[in-house]
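Troubleshooting entry. The earlier prediction with FE2/S2 (inorganic) cluster gave an output that would not parse, so I re-checked the input for stray whitespace and re-submitted. Clean input:
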Amino acid sequence: MIAEIDTIIEKFSGSQRDNLIPILECIQEEQGYISEEAIIKVSRFLKLPASKIYGVATFYDYFHFEPRAKFHIKICNGTACHVLGTGSVLEELENELKISNGQITRDGLFSLEVVSCIGACGSAPVLMINDKYFTNLLGNDMKQIIEDCKKKIKEA
Ligand code: FES
């Protein structure tokens, strides 16, 4: 069950501003993303303007502000990945999922985000599904990768 924002915040004693990042991390872990409601509640708790909290949170790529699918795919289009073939991998991925950058599949299972370097250039082209890296990709790897994700759902 998803913990309420108040319950998450209450775990942090006092309203020290040093708690901002740990609080946001906890909220994202529990709720899947940082909602507007969460920003307002954290703002009241830490007595910091919501704009300041939003400003800090957006500095980190780690935080996101919209709900994401069960499998969030980040495909790298940094220089190394681009040169070694992200284009065809992305094309296959879009064909398989019938979505483009920034979209979520109708069943809510997959979301897609094109990003710049994700730090594994030596194994380009690279993508991540949630926290897992998939490296040295070819376009025709995508069908199997997507099928494996769907299988995990059925087995769960
Ligand atoms: S350019 Fe893709 S991981 Fe660095």
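This one parsed fine. Strands lie at 71-76, 110-115, 127-129, 132-134.
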